[in-house]
Amino acid sequence: MKLKNLLTFLSILLCNILSAQEYVSELEKNAILNFGKDTTNYDFIKTLCVLDENISLQKIEDFKRNLDEFIKTLPENENDERREKKRIQKIYDAVHKEYLRKYENVAYFPQLINDGTYNCVTSTALYTYIFEALNIPFHIKDLPSHVYIIAYPETIKIQLETTAPGSYGFISPKDSEVKKSVENMVKLKLVSSEEVNQKGENKVYMDYFYGENSLDKKGLIGMQYFNKALEAMAEEDFKASLNQINKSLVFYPYAPSEYLQKTLAAINLDHLKFNSNEDITALYDSFSTLEYGKDFQSADIKYYLNKIVQNDANNLTFIEASVKKLTVFDNADLNAEIIDFVYDYIASTYANNADLEESLRTSDTLLKYNSNNKKAKSIVTFAINNKINTLPKTEESYASIVDYYKKYLFIEGSFNIETSKAGFLGQLSYNLYQKKEAEKADNYRTILEEQLDLYNDKIQINPEAISQLFLIAGRYYYGKLNYKKAQEIFEKGLSYNPTNAELQKMIKWTIQDSKK
After folding, report:
1. 466-486 pLDDT, tens per residue?
2. What's the CA gap between 87 and 77, in Å, rounded?
3. How far is CA 75 from each of CA 29, 88, 135, rounded to the nearest angstrom?
């Protein structure tokens, strides 16, 4: 694939998220597939944990029971906002003291269960579960490289910086803090100075940190898989990275995840040999969610199809089986493009190997999708011409030739085929005269005459062979004393070979004998 096309392809390629997915355990597989069936009623804590192949269902359940008991010990709701703010502070501190022991930039929820190691994603997930249990309204906010939670986002707006225990992690911003934060946002180009002048510092700050848009809790599950994908990618394990990013997108339609998925899919495809069913399935999965003609062009998929047909390990049977797996897309034009490319190769190869039946069969597939396919017509013409030349000269064989003409209208008038057909008819008719089956022989001779007269000098015939046919035909009727018919046959033969002395002699004798 050309560099330009490859770069375009990297930016558009998607994989089917759940198809051919690999899982670290049955626990993970069931959790993800069940979530796909019901995205509302699922076990949040369990689904956070199943990315670890070593964690058991029993350990997850034990942690949940412990957590539910701990939640019962937390202070109850206060009606006064000031007191409720203090309550949230107490909950925040109690959670940190009980569960959050060591912060690491990259951490996963099973680590929080095992030894209290956490990061912003897993600690936010823990507070999410607790706040839901306590009916505390909240928003989950995700910023580039950071996640945090806001309690009472519509009223007192308490921001919980879940990575920092103590007073520094419990934020209810002052005006001076708002001003400094907005100034930093402008420097980082997160907002423009024009927007600040128009809306005011407080509005910009509130919109950015406390805006209505919030992350659904399932996004926290997806973030964990996204981080797993980044780890695998850093180790250049692109297959594992793609596997994790696919899982991430089940829970979290994160734009960077989608782009990473596209990139990894292309990288993985370029590492495949396309000589196994698994590789063919990977190719189908990669293109199945794209829009043909918009997201990718025929040249993009032909790049990979060419790898299939040019692989010396792939025989024609495997190649044809592969193309059948690749032509079940919803887009009929895409299927036709694939058929045209691959069956062109298959039919041509069968024709080159003189496998006439298979070259006809596979050309039929090409013509089904494009009745004007020039290559298919050429192969069909070649195959039928060779079949006519090798068919036994029988009436049954001629019936097959007639069927070819009915099925493949475009072969009529072909120089080679009409020449071969004329030779066939001449030999068939000659054989029938030898067997004294004159009525049948006359029928095929008449068909031959019509063909010769229609195409005139466009058919290459053997003059002596034609003469022998009309000599045996005329002599048959000459022997029956039917001089008139015999003379007509001899004269017709002489029109095709005017210098044939034997035909001239027989015409002379017939005229003489008819006058006796």
Report:
1. 999 999 999 999 999 999 999
2. 8
3. 38, 9, 12
